[in-house]
Design brief:
Blueprint: E1 16-18, E2 24-26, H1 42-49
Antiparallel strand pairs: 1-2
Amino acid sequence: MVHVFLLTSDVRHCSALTARCGATLPVDDTQWLPSLAGMPCEHCILDALAVR
């Protein structure tokens, strides 16, 4: 499943990342995708599209 994360410059020093849907994943268990690919997390997509 592909999650959406808000990344900051200090992400290299984090041990875990929290997706827009609230899922927390260890940094070592994540893969960086250079483009849109895979099965998206519907909750992450909806949160990313929400007007704030």
